[in-house]
Amino acid sequence: MPSRATKRGGDRTDLTSDCDVLVCGGSFAGLAVARALAGSGARVMVIDRYELGERQTSACAIPTNWLGALRLGAARLQTFGELVVHTPGTSGRWPLPQTFSTFDYRRLCEELWAQTGLGDGAFETATVTGRTGTTVHTDRGDLSARLVVDAMGWRRVLSHTMGVQPPRAPLSRGLEVHSAGRGAEMELWIDRRYVRAGYGWSFPAGDEVRVGIGSFWPEHGVKAPTVRLAADLGRAPDGYQGNWIPHKLRAATEDGVFFVGDSAGHCLPLTAEGIRTAFYFGLACGRELRAVLEGRASTEQALHAYGAFSGAQARKFGVLLGLQRVIGQLTGTRAIAAMVRALENPHVAGRLLGRYMSAAAPTAALGAPNWS
Ligand SMILES: Cc1cc2nc3c(=O)[nH]c(=O)nc-3n(C[C@H](O)[C@H](O)[C@H](O)COP(=O)(O)OP(=O)(O)OC[C@H]3O[C@@H](n4cnc5c(N)ncnc54)[C@H](O)[C@@H]3O)c2cc1C
After folding, report:
1. Is 1 within a domain?
2. Measured between alpha carbons, how far is 40 from 298 in angstroms, rounded to an integer?
3. Could you tell me what percent of the chain has a pLDDT over 90?
4. Which of 157, 170, 235, 270 has its CA 20 to 30 A from that of 18?
5. How many domains does the chain have?
């Protein structure tokens, strides 16, 4: 893991590229792609506008089995076997079919980077501004590679056909504060007093608690309700971090480029869980790239196979988007309170939450010998 800070000013010297794979974006999706290329002997370069692990992009809660499967347990902070869900009239304690854990973002990036087997020179801080073919334009010069991956999040920077402009794009939005303190419960609020369509959360993570609001409707502001929820919980509104969250699946390939994670709309609608899917599709993308590097597939075949793999998940994403719309409309009604109580039943929770959790499972991502 490179330990220097993001290069600034005069340190941002011109970059030259001499690589097989250029991964743009060094967060969950980009690092999963690079990890899948470990030991391939390929010349891989990862670039990000910030140093690895410098800017946390989420509340960092993930099914614990993913941390185990990727050998990232050292980053784990707290583990929860239940989710406590509040509505104005009632609260329910949902037994989770698999535990969730919060983790330390920087530590997780360090661990993932170590697993890529790439040296310090394989990572550079550079801001990507666009591309011409597979030549990527950055503030430090142009970089060309045989295979190019956009893992730069919701903006889909390397797309020529999809302008993602909030609030008119299919995006949710999220904001959270990181308050010093401790907590024991992983909690959600489905409550119109905080957000008209969406939810609030409180995720304890060691010596801080991550409290935030996600709105399914991009035009609804999330700052005031985040501050309000934090105040109601007696937490200080410190350390803001927020972002737009794509809630609609997008094409995973375009004009010779592989898109992974939020850039491909891989974040799950309704829950805005996008870390495990970034891992899942990142590993899938990496395996297709590997097939090209090892001469088992052409670039076109890899693009086709990866695009088809991602597209095959469209139904699951569509169902969750439908649920997001319905639950958004029903927020504040008795139906939501009834749902919260129903999911306290271990059989109901096991069936419904178990089905949800089975999507993008680590066994499916790591177990398959060949993705094509
Ligand atoms: C407040 C909030 C809380 C969330 N909590 C959770 C959660 O608890 N669990 C969960 O599963 N999901 C959560 N999500 C969703 C999750 O954060 C995303 O789905 C996930 O981060 C997607 O990973 P990614 O690697 O595709 O993109 P990102 O994590 O967004 O990473 C993109 C990377 O690209 C870099 N980049 C962007 N633009 C450029 C550029 N022009 N040039 C160079 N580099 C660039 C960025 O610096 C960044 O490192 C949350 C989202 C928000 C907003």
Report:
1. no
2. 16
3. 86
4. 157
5. 1
